[in-house]
Specification:
Length: 357
């Protein structure tokens, strides 16, 4: 009953929009975490025009190669042991290098392996990367290693690009410029929010994730504001309809009380599918294409909808859209007090995915 549709035309459209926003940059399409819940291989095939793919884990890179994807693939966290290093070499995956431990691994690598390497600067987010002098020194050491394929590429990640009014991004950009001055190698700084908010730092490579899926990284706006189209639509259907009298309580904890005679529809979807339990009463859903409101607590397999005011009387079997076409996931994220990333990433295994070609 619950299904996700993935619109590959929308993915291709969004990639073109991104190219127009950053005409001088090559696109490393970020498809980690099962392409933010859209399906790793589905997304990679639809995004065949991307210049490279970025994933977080070796297993994701290997799955892409097994599916016959020949595009360059970057491991955003690099490798952590000899087994991963060998697997990455065999699959021709590019490595991000961000720690002294990874430098050691590369130093001990067998003579025949060759890697394209991205050296990561920690420009102030304090997650991954080398700082200042350690970065320059790692760069010099890497550059002399025999495993290196081509120049060392240079990257960093911005921590506050979705709030452009804060000073952090300008500071991080200055730190990156200073640390990489006079170094050869291609540069990559920006993910979705940054490439929109700070176009001057798009550099040779951009690393968009969220925008590809048609979603805005800025609270209070939607993908449509940037000419993007939603890729994922989450749907289910009505499995029961009933009439309540004033005072009836709905769901676990009796959290919601009918203030009027109410027609209630039960939809077959819950947190067991990845719909957020934190979505509060009032969260919009579409029933037969009309707006209605979720009421009461979300259960594991079901949720309740007030359909009293529907133009077209809701009945069992009617379609429900939870987010996607006609209902931006950005809006649901606000109701659920989260960010759209967690919603699309959170779609569970039991949900079937259909590809719209
Ligand atoms: C996830 C990630 C991205 C993509 O971020 P979006 O906000 O989805 O565009 C880019 N770079 C790195 C290092 C990441 O971890």
């Amino acid at each position: 009953m619950v299904s996700v549709t993935v619109d590959s035309g929308a993915l291709r459209h969004n990639l073109q929009v991104i190219r127009r926003l950053a005409p001088k940059s090559r696109v490393m399409a970020v498809i980690k975490a099962n392409a933010y819940g859209h399906g790793l291989v589905i997304a990679a095939r639809a995004l065949a025009a991307a210049d490279a793919f970025a994933v977080a884990r070796v297993s994701e890179g290997l799955a892409l190669r097994e599916a016959g994807i020949k595009t360059p693939i970057v491991l955003l966290e690099g490798v952590f042991d000899r087994q991963q290093l060998d697997a990455a070499a065999a699959a021709d995956l590019q490595l991000v290098v961000h720690s002294p431990e990874q430098m050691e691994l590369l130093r001990a690598a067998p003579a025949h392996v060759q890697f394209k390497v991205w050296l990561k600067l920690d420009s102030g987010m304090n997650r991954l990367g080398f700082k200042g002098e350690a970065f320059r020194s790692a760069h010099a050491q890497l550059s002399s290693m025999s495993i290196l394929k081509g120049p060392v590429n240079l990257m960093t990640h911005l921590g506050c690009a979705d709030t452009p009014q804060r000073p952090n991004t300008a500071e991080q950009l200055m730190v990156f410029a200073a640390a990489t001055r006079n170094l050869v190698g291609e540069r990559s700084i920006e993910s979705s929010a940054a490439l929109l908010g700070f176009p001057e730092a798009q550099a040779e490579w951009i690393r968009p994730g969220l925008l590809l899926y048609g979603v805005s990284p800025f609270r209070g706006s939607t993908g449509a504001d940037h000419d993007l189209r939603p890729v994922m639509t989450l749907r289910t259907s009505i499995i029961a309809v009933k009439d309540l009298i004033e005072g009836d309580q709905v769901g676990y904890g009796g959290d919601w009380t009918a203030r009027r005679p109410t027609r209630l529809a039960i939809a077959a979807i819950g947190y067991g599918d990845g719909y957020p339990r934190s979505a509060s009463s009032g969260t919009p859903v579409l029933v037969n294409g009309e707006h209605a409101a979720l009421v009461g607590r979300v259960s594991m397999d079901m949720l309740a909808i007030d359909v009293t005011d529907a133009q077209r009387a809701a009945k069992v079997g009617d379609p429900v859209v939870l987010w996607g076409e006609g209902l931006p996931v950005e809006e649901i994220a606000i109701w659920a007090e989260t960010i759209p990333y967690t919603l699309t990433c959170g779609i569970n295994q039991r949900v079937s995915v259909t590809l719209l070609e």
